[in-house]
Amino acid sequence: MATPSRSEILTLFRSLLRSARQFQDYNIREYTKRRTIDAFRHNKTLSEPSSIAAAFSDGQSQLQVAKRQAVVYSLYAPKIKSIMDIKH
Amino acid sequence: MASKIIASTVRRSLSPKLLPLIRPLSTAAAAAAAPAEPYDSSAGISMKGVKISGRPLYLDMQATSPVDPRVLDAMLPYFVSQYGNPHSRTHLYGWESDEAVEAARAQVASLINASPKEIVFTSGATECNNISVKGVMHFYKEKKKHVITTQTEHKCVLDSCRHLQQEGFDVTYLPVKSDGLIDLNDLRNSIRSDTGLVSVMAVNNEIGVIQPMEEIGEICKEFGVPFHTDAAQALGKIPVDVNKWNVSLMSLSGHKVYGPKGVGALYMRRRPRIRVEPQMNGGGQERGIRSGTVPTPLVVGMGAACEIAMKEMEYDGKRAVKLKDRLLNGIRDRLDGVVVNGSTERRYAGNLNLSFAYVEGESLLMGLKEVAVSSGSACTSASLEPSYVLRALGVDEDMAHTSIRFGIGRFTTEEEIDKAIELTVNQVEKLREMSPLYEMVKEGIDIKSIQWSQH
Predict the structure, then answer these.
(1) What is the Cα–Cα distance from B139 to B431, expressed in whole angstroms?
(2) How many other CB atoms are found less than 10 A from the CB of residue B214?
(3) Residue of B nearest to A63 (CA)
(4) Is B220 a catalytic residue?
């Protein structure tokens, strides 16, 4: 596919962070947020179009996984939240 | 036209509330959906006499690890629609299931730099250890009568060796130094002409020390002895290479690499070929080594977990070191008398085993109910004995009793570490306040010099 534009990349970034917020589980939510930010920061320096396109499509498939799993995890969320979600 | 407008309004008003309305469609599902739950209300959970306001934060990654959502995503299709038996040769269900199993096999093999033909799927690392220890020795029992292992191995290896001893084999249990590593000269001197197997685990589950695998592999190659390693805790955390380590057999576990429980893999070298006597007899699946239907969803999960581990090993490793330093420095800044069990250099950062002096272990654990940690290993915590691993290190009984194992993993956050520090330090300070032994130490009395009077 053609090299994604800056706005497409930003949209992907925001969608990933939005899907992170949907997770009820504290650990998965924080991990998704953190991993997204770190991965995008790490890939910021990529210059070759093919590697940018590869990273972008990898990000898109991860977004699909995150969306599906956010639904699955919410179906089976425990009634009592993690201590980390309650205290702060 | 009007009916369409009505229908769409009805749909729009109902859709936001759809998810909570999912009801079990049968009484069986309803019964299955409500197991005996701990009494819980908005006030929290009360179980086994302990009340906590929320689910504890999880710092016990060596006991098991949570399933990564990406692994669950890979597994679900094989529970829902692609449920065939991979050994059914006659229809699509079997073919697609078999394809998935072979793809997973390749994923596991690439993480340890092996060929997919050398991977056998089992029900877990315990089964792999059984096959390796008992299977190898029974196969070569005419010529080989001797097994070498260490004192800090996992219970399943030690128990299999004890079983072999009862059958008449000789077993040498190598002692470990105080940092948890074996002495390579001890190993060299213990090898006899009839040694059939050397079994040394790569990363210890209780103290996290990494044994000198390459050096042990070289010694085994020199003497021509098969080398088995239990790499359940090492997989996905440190680089594992069966050729660099020169292993003939390697036990791998699914649920330690953020995969599902109930699956493991055994690596068996093909050049030179190592033969084993199967422990599970049956239809000859998995090349006759392990009969029984291969559980496709679990195997797919383990494969996905291995692939993710390969991509994330560097990132997770760096994070583990950062979090371990934060935890250790946070505790050491506020407490004295904290001892790290096991070597500090040759260690996996995600496993931190600390002993707190002048504190009683059981009471420390009872006060740490908001953190899920373990003392000793899950296998030995049912009995009252202090862990045999710590005893093999030469740790004093009282320090062995107060050891806590913090397990840091992929999903651990800095806030969880800070909270764990807070809770641990508070509990230890509270206990030390009450402890007369600590008072004596503060006054400068040497505890070991006290003559306890006998009544």
Answers:
(1) 54
(2) 11
(3) B70
(4) no
Cα–Cα distance measured from residue B138 to residue B243, given in angstroms and rounded to the nearest whole number: 25
B54, B69, B315 ranked by CB distance to A82: nearest = B54
Neighbours of B176 (CB within 10 A): 24
- pLDDT tens digits along B270-323: 999 999 999 999 999 999 999 999 999 999 999 999 999 999 999 999 999 999
- Nearest Cα residue to B242 out of B118, B352, B371, B390: B118
Q: What is the pLDDT of residues B129-179, one digit of tens each?
A: 999 999 999 999 999 999 999 999 999 999 999 999 999 999 999 999 999
Write the CB contacts of B147 (distance below 8 Å, at least 6 apart in sequence).
B133, B137, B161, B164, B169, B170, B171, B172, B195, B196, B197, B198, B199
Cα(B190)–Cα(B173) distance, integer angstroms: 10
- Closest of B123, B170, B124, B125 to residue B149, by C-alpha: B170
Rounded distance, CA B210 to CA B347, Å? 5
- Own/partner contacts of B157-166, CB < 8 Å, gap of 24 or more, are B157/B129, B157/B133, B157/B199, B157/B201, B157/B230, B160/B129, B160/B130, B160/B133, B160/B134, B161/B133, B161/B199, B163/B134, B164/B133, B164/B134, B164/B137
- Please check whether residue B393 is in contact with residue B342, taking contact to mean a CB–CB distance below 8 angstroms: yes
What is the separation, in whole angstroms, between the first and last Cα of chain A?
44
d(CA B189, CA B124): 33
Q: Does the beta-carbon distance from A83 to B52 stay under 8 Å?
A: yes
Chain B residues contacting A via beta carbons under 8 Å:
19, 22, 40, 44-45, 52-58, 66, 69-70, 72-73, 76, 315, 370, 410-413, 415-416, 419
Type and span of the H or E element at B56: none
Question: Residue B46: left if φ>0, alpha if ψ -120 to 50, beta else—which one?
Answer: beta
| Cβ B84 vs Cβ B93: under 8 Å | yes
- Residues B413, B221: Cα–Cα separation, whole Å: 42
Q: Is A15 helix (H, G, I), strand (E, B) or coil?
A: helix
CA-CA distances (angstroms) from residue B12 to B2, B15, B66, B110, B270?
A: 15, 5, 37, 49, 62
DSSP per-residue string spanning B77-130? HHHHT----TT--SSHHHHHHHHHHHHHHHHHHHHTT--GGGEEEES-HHHHHH
Residue B246: half-sphere exposure toward Cβ, Cα within 13 Å: 16
Instruction: Note whether A58 contacts B: Cβ–Cβ < 8 A.
Output: no
Question: Is residue B160 classed exposed, middle or buried when 0-12, 13-18 and 19+ CB atoms within 10 A define those classes?
Answer: buried
Kindly list the distances between the CA atom of residue B106 and the CA atoms of B84, B265, B267, in Å, as whole numbers in the listed order.
20, 12, 12
pTM above 0.80, yes or no: yes
Within 13 Å and on the Cβ side, how many CA atoms surround B313? Answer: 17
Per the structure block, which two tokens stand in for B434?
Answer: 């009450």
